[in-house]
Amino acid sequence: MKNKLIYITIASLLLAGCRQDVIVTPPEEEQHGDTLHNSIAGFYLLNEGNMGSNKATLDYYDFGTATYSRNIYASANPNVAKELGDVGNDLKIYGSRLYAVINCSNKIEVMDARTCKRIGQVDIPNCRYITFNDKYAYVTSYAGPVSLDAGHAQIGYVARFDTSTLALDETTCLVGFQPDELAVANGKLYVANSGGYMAPDYDSTVSVIDLNTFKEIKRITVAKNLWRVRPDCMGQLWVSSRGDYYDTPAKLYCIDTGTDAIIDSVSIAVSALDILGDTLYACATAWDYVKMADVITYTMLDVRSRRVVSTNFITDQTDKEIGKPYGIKVHPLTRDIYITDAKNYVNPGMLHCYSADGKLKWSVRTGDIPAHFAMVKN
Amino acid sequence: MKLHQLLIFAFLFGTTMTAHAAPPTPDEMLDSIARQFTIDEVEVTARRREEPVIPVQKLSGAQLQGLSTQSVADAARYFSGVQIKDYGGVGGLKTIDVRSMGTNHLGVFYDGIEIGNAQNGTVDLGKFSMDNIEELALYNGQKSEIFQPAKDYGSAGTLYIKTRRPKFADGKTFNLQVTMKAGTFGLANPSILYEQKLTDNIHLSASAEYTYAHGRYHFRYRRVLPSGAVAWDTTAVRQNGDVQAWRSEVGLFGYLPEGKWHVKGYYYQSEKGIPGAIVNNVWTNSQRQWDRNAFVQGNFTKRVTKGYDFQFNAKYTNDYMRYLNPDTTLMYIDNSFTQQEIYLSMAHRLAVVGVKGLVPHNDVNWDISLSADWQWNYLKSNLANFVYPERNTVLAAAATQLLWKYLKAQASVLGTFIFDKIHHPTQATPTAYKQRPQFTPAVFLSYQPLLREELFLRAYYKHIFRMPTFNDLYYTDVGNISLQPEYTTQYDGGVQYDKQWPGGVCRAVSVKADGYFNQVRNKIVAIPKGNGQYRWQMMNLGYVEIRGCDVNASTTLDLTHDVLLTIGGAYTYQKAQDFTNPKEITYGGQIAYIPWHSASATANLLWRGLSVNYAFIYVGERYHNSANIPANHEQPWYTHDVSISYDMPLIRKSKVESQKSACPRMYFAIEINNLLNQQYDVILNYPMPGINGKGIIRLTI
Fold first, then answer.
1. A330, A343, A369, A374 from A350: Cα distances, Å
2. Distance from first CA to last CA of chain B, Å, rounded?
3. Which candidate in B328, B533, B596 is best for mutational testing of the A interface (most A CBs within 10 A)?
4. What are chain A's domains?
5. Reported ipTM
6. Which end of chain A has fewer beta carbons closer than 10 Å to its terminal beta carbon, N or C?
7. Contact list, B685 vs chain A (CB under 8 Å)
């Protein structure tokens, strides 16, 4: 009897200690919040994953069943080698398709917005952000021609592809250095050039592209190290500058898309923002060299008056629990605010759902570096 | 004679090996076995004195040769308590982590003097070829010796790499050894070693080695559906893993009355591809790295008067590294770094009480030692906004050792004084930073409770730290000048038992076991900062507790007909928990890449000139992050390596035992590694090679 036990123990230990076939990662489901039935079916959340980890993952929250499903890409597409890829940098839905920009996998993954099933991919090296107009998807890329001078300055470009055929247009439009977000407003395409590879000689311009000719028509000089560009309901464009992390602080600028002139600026840092109606929601972390710590702000701004309404829209003190706010999305109907916490970029992040009045409703663990949202309509 | 016998004796327990000029022949080994049973009680008493207080693990001689190892990192895997971080391939970065305290807490010493890297603290053990290595010794805590430079007290664990010292058989004035190794990955690795007896007391050694490998190998990633059906199965070729390296060394070894000295010059240069992570849509990378390491070092040791020993060590190092990213889909990078180091050390030992001490006594030995080191480091780079850091380090150590009957005790305290200066490219005068002085103690005890049994109980406590590196402190944007040192505290208790049976089939058995508790405080971790992507800041944030045990056992069996079988095994259990933040999912989680269970086993069958070896390495399941969730799970991996070698004299010119090793010899070996072709990653997305092999031919004259 005693011997038998020993054998069983040894056998089970050996079994546990052996390699097994790795099963395609199954999604993990959790119930959070109350069920909600309206024209918004749910949202996707793209987790960036740290560089080299190949851990870009997609999570999905279903409002109808109040179910959060973590890491759904692999099981929806079990035959894709090495899953979604390395560093998910942007996520959008256009028409019936979901587009994920996977920066270090040099591709845009195109999926069915309902099922998350892969339709195809578009290869664009060092692709950053995506937007859409008419039949085209427009994507910024850092990987333009390299000048062979000492600095090896590399100009960026905007590529476009047909959203139905996924055929990449042969012509690209060169813009500034290291272009990040881009947005269509007033019939023009605006591109924020960061110059991130050129530190401390950052770029400070927004490229304006004519959508018909797909040619850059002008540059607007804004401020160092630009990042976000978002249009609002007033025909204005909000452009964020990261500053140079030393003497020039981060700032948010407002451009009139009629005149393409800077009409205002607000002294806030912006890590992520979302504009709903006449309200701009921004969360930001700014490094304080005196405190050697991040100063975190949650700002609400009225886009009409262009004035800050609140410097902390989280009203129940739970903002102290958030280590590094990284992504933000406001539900178009309920005005619930979704904020992601990227923590230390290596540990799994968190998603927090706040009510419109800034009270925490629920939280859920996400993948690594949760960042980009895409709302799915019913 | 006594010492010789002790060394032979110790070899049987898989710990150390006699240092012959040529690899020991089977005949010699059998002779050794015959001789070792003549050890009498006096010898056992002496052995007690030689037995280190601190657990030491050694690999040397035939045992080392039997393991299929290309680099020091490959060999270090066989030590218990060691975890290897291997990025794969001949040129891939390989570092080791002892008892989960972190790679930067291991001091690596090459022929007695530490190999530094003030820039990032990482010593790539993959760069050190096994070709001219005689012995590897790993000490937890510090070397069991008090007559040593202050630096030897300065790490939580130390690895000593000892290169071959010239030894000449009777009547010989030179040794020549020519080796060719070739194998998979396009490996071509010729080397030459020449040793000359200049005078009776001055010996010269010169060696050179060239390594080339294209570094390509097949790897395979595979996933299955819950049903067991294949979801995807991809085989690709690892690219950009080529390496080309030159190594040359020249050494002079001198012997004085009650003293010795040596001077050594070392030059290494390499160019290699960095194969990089394999991620979706990216199956090849193009980054490259160039290294140039040169140093000159020397040691002088002498008994000055009765009871007083003195040693002096000095070193100058000049290291260059260039990293190039030519891939235009990523940021273009072409950075180079030059580091320089000057190191001077003096150590003194006074035998206060003892047989040869100032106060003669037969039962008590009491020694004290004092050592003082000075080190200067300077780092230059072509990076934009780079500040040139300069560091002066003064180390002072006091240590004492007491032997009293069956008790052996050592205690030491190390004082560290660091003065940094930062040269801003735009400022005329440098800025000075004085680091807080540190005083760190260590205590070691060993006790032999039974007179006739070789049973030893031991315990140690050591508190030590690692300084933040230049990168941690001053790197553009990332560095944090207010960083504190990262402290480790170790508590260890262990037992060792050795037994031998003259004339039996089982000739000897040795068992060692240690339990330990380590704390890593103020762990330096990178945290993201501010408003921007992937901007990091170094902070003293982490706290880790490690509970573990290491067990080693070995036995030697005499299977008659001149067949000798040696079997050894090592097992490690480690619970290394991240207790940084109680609010995080990572709290209490096993830290990244540390398996709970790991083990190794080796077997060596020896029959005359023929040697058959088997080696097994096991690393249990791990997580690549201290959030121990399924998405971070890493499979166990294990490899089986076999090798067969034959060593034969070319001319049987003499029947006289002592002259046998003097005749020319040929050595042939074939190694097959990862016999079962396991496809595994040590580090996430860095695939390791499957089955691979190597052939070796060596001519010794």
1. 16, 8, 9, 17
2. 27
3. B533
4. 124-267 (2.130.10.10)
5. 0.93
6. N
7. 52-54
